[in-house]
Amino acid sequence: MRGIYLPRLADATASSMATYGIPLLVLGTTNSASLTGVAFVLTWAPRLCTFGPAGMAVDRYGPARVFRLAAAARALVVGCVAPALVMTDDDMALGLVMLLAACAGCLTQFSYIAAESVGAVASRDAGDAAHRVQSVLLGIDQTAALVGPAAGGFLLQWDGSSGMLAVIGGLSILAAAIAPRMRRAPAQASKATAPAARGWRTGWSTLRALPALAWLVAGLAFSNLALGLLEAATPVIVVKHLGRSSASVGVIWSCAAAASLLAVAICRGMIDRWGLTRVGRCAALVTSVPCFLIAHADSYWAYLSLIAVFMAGDSVLAVVLRTLRSRLIPVEVFGSTLSVTVLLLLLPYPLAGLLMAVAGPAAIHTLITVCAVLQSLGLVFALTYGVRSRSRRGKHRK
User: Fold this and answer.
1) What is the pTM of this model?
2) Whose CB has fewer CB within 10 Å in the chain, the N or C terminal residue?
3) Domains of the chain
4) What is the pLDDT of residue 388?
């Protein structure tokens, strides 16, 4: 299992540092909230455009090969951009950073789909302990989220863009070098060689045939809209409204990741005792209430605490989704179906960035409140009709 976990940790840390560090780099360069929102959009939007090719590539060539190529390509892009930033003027540097955001988002999609496919195989092999495997994998992701934003913020504060980009490139090279080389693709070769459009249709058809998964994905998409808005708005709120440094932004997300790690560790025993449904509903409540309060936080420490509680509940919801997903999706179409679910869960992120870029900093608190309402409604329907659909499906099994 070390051949799965260690590359995932290195890749997830590089992705996390790029996701949170690039918008901070734009804010420090331009002092513009709107351009920070644009950078956030460019980080996430390419992932939506490449979800189909990523799933088909994993089904056809195997997750290990796709993972290695994506990590190596990200290291190459970062290695080209880092020295160019030093030798160009501000306008050209801004364009290069925006290009880096788009390329990093695209390559992250490929490596993420590949890593999730390998994790799904391990979950199916674990049987009834699938939620424990998924909690370990999510713990790895949250560890990366703990290290990435803090390291990115501190490197930008004291070593500038070159230090942060050098670390991102080094982690990407490490992930490519230690990735497993003999793992087979989860799909049969005859199925994986289908055209990309057919794989896209297969993923949607599979999702429609699994109402429990579809309802839960829809609810979490609304939850991700709130999370995406918080991620896009936090640099502006902390630096502009609360008067803190860029390093303080990294501290917020690192504390949130620590709270998420604790929640994931606790939820293993809770799911064993009370089941996925009850734990999922409690997590939805823990996620929704802080989201309403965040819009009214008037101090740095109150904002940090509410973000940490929000992320803790969101992480437990992620364990529920991953466990259901690994149980329900047929292995022969896993890559294509996973790509569709990832599309639906990632779509709110660039939408959140667009909302912030259009509305401006004055409307941030209103947007957060609206997203909190949508999140609450989405999770209520997801954990009511989704669980009910799953129960009916289980009753007809022989």
Assistant:
1) 0.67
2) C
3) 2-178+202-392 (1.20.1250.20)
4) 57
